[in-house]
Design goal:
Chain lengths: 250, 250
DNA sequence: CGAGGGGTTGATCTCCTTCAACGGAGGTGG
DNA sequence: CCACCTCCGTTGAAGGAGATCAACCCCTCG
């Protein structure tokens, strides 16, 4: 239990400020949020389909994923979430889960009550818009992944993922685009890219052999990021990282 | 130019009311929206990446798609939109497009200015939440498609699409789940399912031969919808069609 | 020291792609 | 009213990216 999880809220606020212009009062409101802190071992389900949730999951530490599962157990990870990400902020407006949230590695998650988030939306319309905008970034990642899954090769999908996570880690202050921690197993990578673990393994070897990406023990190194982005056909626009939008409202 | 596009706004309102509880005043506010009406031939780009839009596209008639395109021209349709759908409502909070919107067949689109939508969000916080919730439904469709693209066979992807469009048509009052108009070419179907047009053709023949779906001249008929849903592993939860959520706010 | 999880490898299979051609329906113009 | 064109659906043959199945290795941890 952590009543004032300041450092993580700062990360979350930083994430919001990257896309939304918030005044001092609104920023204080974000920092005043509270929630219950939970620690999770790797591969623990945090939210499951059918569940009706009354709080949103703010990632404080570790790596978290949203996924869909088939009846035979095969999974599709639909997005990864890192520290400072509110991985199911959308549950505020859609509390009945049709998705799953899981810890990829040991993770600390702060459950922020919907009541608090809802109150902020009413009191500060700019925050409602900021939250909505944050969810729009997620949606943008989803459509980009649709493109990857539907129209790209194994090599392109993996390199695209390494580019995306690099930029997001850098934006969150958790590394640089060319060197960051990403402790996903090849199994998880396969679930994110729609491949099998075996084929991820072979493709990673291929990518490594070309010197494009070092991926070892959960650390990613990218000697030439721009070259990798070219191979992945990576266009960073979908991450909406180029500064906050002007305020729609007074 | 159509200053009071009533019938389409009613459809849009109906769509919102299916997920959000809105009072009389809020409903009137929606119906009072105005916009410029545009007619599009098939396969016309309505919004292109890089563009900064200042209005959202409300589909009045026809079939519209959002898609991403690779450098070589290959496309991935990320979602379809039918009459009553505001296909880029999210552009209100993210006006710089990283996506494309195109007409699949002849389509009529009403461009509703962001200024009007933004004003409604501030004046009626419940509408801001309703808009956000509407976008969340879209996002939910995106993640479901990620699952389809990453983990399902050609047959499953196509049958899933027919199930989804059936339910959406029915919800919009544009047909029934087992008989509706869907004038997409096999080429468009292939762009939506991440396949080639040739393989869509063969798979459709297979599905037709089994009597699962009749798809001819843009009309879909599904003799046994539940059987089809079982094959597609279709779970309707992601469409959030089971009634409006309780008001978060007064 | 044994168990288990994750990474690696090889052989084989198959679903889907690719390329190329043809047919039919509808629209248009001479 | 027919000739032509174009778009869309269809078919065949061949090839390839990735799946599948089954080992085996290594490291970590209890």
């Amino acid at each position: 239990m952590d009543r004032k999880p300041e450092p993580t809220l700062s990360l979350f606020l930083k994430r919001l400020l990257r896309r939304s212009d918030l005044n001092a009062q609104e920023q204080r409101a974000i920092l005043s949020l509270t929630g219950v802190t939970h620690r999770h071992r790797p591969n623990e389900d945090i939210v499951s389909p059918g569940e009706r949730v009354d709080s949103a999951c703010l990632v404080a530490k570790g790596l978290v994923a949203r996924y869909d599962q088939r009846l035979d157990g095969r999974r599709q990870i639909t997005s990864f979430y890192i520290a400072g990400d509110m991985c199911d902020l959308h549950s505020l407006v859609a509390p009945k889960a049709s998705w799953s949230i899981t810890s990829v590695i040991e993770a600390t998650v702060i459950r922020v009550p919907h009541t608090q988030l809802g109150r902020l939306c009413v009191e500060y319309p700019a925050l409602a818009l900021a939250f909505w905008r944050d969810c729009t970034v997620d949606a943008s990642i989803f459509t980009t992944w649709e493109g990857n899954l539907g129209r790209k090769s194994a090599k392109e999908r993996l390199t695209h993922l390494f580019c995306e996570m690099g930029l997001r880690m850098e934006a969150a202050g958790l590394g640089t685009r060319q060197a960051y921690e990403f402790r996903a197993t090849q199994e998880r990578l396969s679930e994110a890219t729609g491949l099998t673990a075996v084929h991820v393994n072979r493709t990673l070897q291929h990518i490594r052999a070309e010197g494009l990406v070092k991926f070892d023990r959960g650390f990613v190194e990218i000697p030439d990021w721009n070259a990798l982005a070219a191979i992945a056909e990576f266009d960073p626009g979908f991450l909406m990282l180029d500064g906050p939008q002007k305020r729609i409202i007074s």
